[in-house]
Amino acid sequence: MAVYKLFPSQDASIYSAYPAMNAGLDAILDVNNKVTDVNPVAQVARSLIKFDQSQIDDVIDNIAKVTGSWDNFSGSLKLNVAKATNVILKSNIEVYPISGSWNNGSGQYLDKPVNHTGVSWVYSDYSGSNKWSTGGWNPLITASFSGSNNAGGGVWYTGSGGYEGIGPLEFTQSFNLRSDKDLNVNVTDALRVWYSSSRGLNAGKIEIANEGFIVKWETDKEFITSSAVSPQLSYYSVDTNTIYPPQLEIKWDDSVYETGSLEVINTPDLFVALDNNQGIFYSESINNFRLSVRPEFPIRSFQTASVYTTNYALPSQSLYAIKDLDTNEFVVDFDKEFTNISCDSTGSFFTVYMNGLEPERYYCILIQTEIAGQTIVMDENYYFKVVNG
Fold this sequence. Notes:
single chain; mainly beta; Immunoglobulin-like; 8-stranded antiparallel beta sheet; 5-stranded mixed beta sheet; 7% helix; elongated
């Protein structure tokens, strides 16, 4: 199994209330329908996030080499919530691929004087140039706003144009009062279309270049002037000073399970040691962790070799996870589809791509397996640190 995390090359929020303001270097990405007490008026915010296509291509090319199929992966856009307000009704956040290039800019929210160096509600570039289209869109492309006073707000694709096995390019996640407010939405089809366009794999189809994602509330929740419909979510941007920047997480299953002459351990009383752990890894490292597995209480037998030198294989339904030691949060959770532990004639193993982990932090590996009807989770102080290379 492999998890590869990419971080944005650009991200910014755009605000209907400040049509030419750039917030490309702000630490927060806003997605809201804010209702003011005056009149009342609805102020809408959307966020734009772009990941480098060459990095996406490199990851998918590697998937093709490992699995024999370039589209054998899952991709998710993940944003960590900084603040959630008034998300009291069931509401959907929508994510679409953006149509048209845009410039990040160097502004922050409510800079004085207002910064006009990049993308805003009206302009895709600096103020005064390249307005977002407000009509006459090409097939598969749309936008939305409530009237001439707030025209703009980005342009995006809603369809894939007949790419094989790919339908509408609309990705949603539902929120309500008690739900988790982090965004974790599957955007696999968008990545497939971008890769296909980049590599020329769908001749005759409309090319859809990677210009990033736009994140917005569903149309029914935008520009509503009722204070009861004013959901507001703030997420950390790539310019945050926290460990929670946006991530594009790409996962695929590269596991193999061939035990050879190894015996599969069948007792829940087992000891597992983590080998090939240098303790410190550069962020560019790819490490193959191997596991030494044996019964904790071996059966007594008469033999010339030590029973402690015999390695066993973990059962095929074994998984691994990675946890941040400071926050105690899983950065890679147990996943029966994507975190399977492999096995060969030497023993059990799994591969970790270190550049998907925040550098200058300590991490812990956990092992989960099922033996004799028991689910066993082992947290045996398997620590390592990732540092900047």
